[in-house]
Amino acid sequence: MSLMIKRIELNNFRNYQHYILNDIGKLTLLLGANALGKTNFIEAIQLTTSLDSFRKPKADYLCKDGSCFASVKTEITDGSRDLEIKLTIKEGKKEYFLNNKRKQARSLRSLLPSVLFCPDDLDLIKGSQAIKRSVVDHLGDQLSPNYSAVRKDWEKLLRQKNHYLKEEVDQSVLLSINDVMATVGAQLYCLRSTIVKGLIPYIQKAYQDIAGCHECIDIAYIPSWMRHDISREHYQDVPYVSREKARETLLDCFNEYFQDEKERHVTLFGPHMDSIEFFINQKNAHDFASQGQQRSLVLSYKMAEVDFITDKLNQKPVLLLDDVMSELDSFRRRALLSLINGSVQTFITSTNRDYFTPELLESARIVTLEGDT
After folding, report:
1. Domain 4-113+315-368, what fold?
2. CB contact set of 60 (below 8 Å; sequence gap of 6+)
3. How much is the pLDDT for 81?
4. What residues contact 355, with CB distance under 8 A and at least 6 apart?
5. How many angstroms separate the CA atoms of 341 and 97, rounded?
6. Do β-strands 365-368 and 27-31 pair in parallel, antiparallel, or remain unpaired?
7. I need a labelling partner for 278 at 20 to 30 A (CA). Which of 68, 122, 124, 312 fits?
8. Alpha carbon 236 to chain centroid distance?
9. CATH number attached to the domain at 124-288
10. Over the stretch 130-156, which tens digit does the pLDDT of each residue have?
11. pLDDT tens digit string along 328-340?
């Protein structure tokens, strides 16, 4: 049996002074007007499951106005063991605890992962490449502590090299860091591309269930060194390469464009410049998909994450749906709710209970937020 959340306690978190939700079941529906804290509650769950927030706030912003300390306690169980994940925020720092023992965040991410779907995600298909990379990285971080470590190593090296380029340090220093960056960049390329490739059959199945048609869905991961050599029409044909080949190619690019990077004071190649493209019937969804197709594709991606995590970790993630019902038409609302169907623990926020069927309302724990908490 998968772990599930049974209790959440918030103290001085965002707009919550003190709030406890007990006896949490498979489906929880949080209803209320805007600005009452529905999204804050979802954020608290995300911070104690995926150990991250889609808002990317400074730690101080998580504390209620006038307070310098906040905490979130999430009690989870699988029927045979009970665990408590606790987040504390104090003096601008976040600390995590598992059963009162301090832990590094990355060591807890795969314990009870989560998948968030919020209105901003509906821009995924037409959004920037930075957003798409971030979505894949968030998934990768939850699947493996090694993914998080490699990603952070790359980001640290990238900042360091860009600093060196701006300071115009000695050439030998840049050559040395290029060698390390090629190794770490190749690792991150392989980790990302493996996830993207692995997601494809899950997205294809979810899209067919949601859209009710047999359109061909595909995703391509395009490394930085290929973006300059091929046109957008041929992105779908980009092959995956081995880690050693990726390392050699990155190093060749660093050497070939060494002078360009020095003149522009920025690193031109590496995972921070890679692309992720979605396709429907062999056409780039960014350029050709209708709004309905885009939304079906985003829904499919989110539901694919749920099944992908379940299969990889043998643990069902928590599904967090934050105010997305108002952004979807009735057809896609029904499709999304039918896919949930009690299979994963789900939290839904909404301003309008009319979006939900009588059957769902009957099976849900309905929590109404009405004012200060």
Report:
1. Rossmann fold (3.40.50)
2. 89, 92
3. 95
4. 325, 326, 333
5. 32
6. parallel
7. 312
8. 23
9. 1.20.1050.90
10. 999 999 999 999 999 999 999 999 999
11. 998 899 888 888 7
